[in-house]
Amino acid sequence: MEIRTLREKDAEEVSALIAATLRTTNSKDYSAEYIENEVKALQPQNILERAGWTHFYVFCEDGKIVGCGAIGPFWGKTDESSLFTIFVLPEYQGQGIGRKIIETLEEDEYFLRAKRIEIPASITAVPFYRKMGYDYKCGVTTPDAEGLLRLEKFR
């Protein structure tokens, strides 16, 4: 597996990967309207914008991007970071790619400098993140107004 930082030319493929994952994997936990709003919010230009303030990685198999993930500062703080945009193509899920994404992000300088790392997690992804050592922030186990659960890990 090739792991590298996002290139400008990757944005369209990453956006399509995210849309496919949302429409397939997340559709059991979210309405079609919610998913389409998320798809609209993660178009190629949004991916490039996010890559401007995060370290955004892509994970490739045979030249195809099969997963992505990013890490950046939590609201500009130097001792807290957040994980973002973690997606694996549905047909590649269950093969350890998600674990590799988390491991890669946890080796990044934004992770290593942080005392606390937060993930704005979809309902769908919570069991996976909990297996990776993240737990509910302040014990809150219900989605917030954005439909997400806030998970965190302390170092």
Describe what you observe in this structure:
- The protein has helices at 11-24, 32-41, 44-53, 97-105, 109-112, 126-131, and strands spanning 2-5, 55-61, 64-73, 80-88, 116-122, 135-136, 148-154.
- It has 155 residues and is an alpha+beta fold.
- It has one domain (2-154): Aminopeptidase, CATH 3.40.630.30.
- It has a seven-stranded mixed β-sheet, with helices on both faces.
- The longest helix has 14 residues, at 11-24.
- The chain is globular and about 35 Å long.
- The model has no long low-confidence stretch (mean pLDDT 97).
State the low-pLDDT regions, or none: none
Count every beta strand, where a strand is a DSSP E run of 2 or more residues: 7
Number of separate structural domains: 1
Report the average pLDDT across residues: 97
Amino-to-carboxy terminus distance: 28 Å
Number of helices: 6
Give the helix proportion (percent range).
Answer: 25-40%
Which value, in Å, is the CA radius of gyration?
Answer: 15 Å
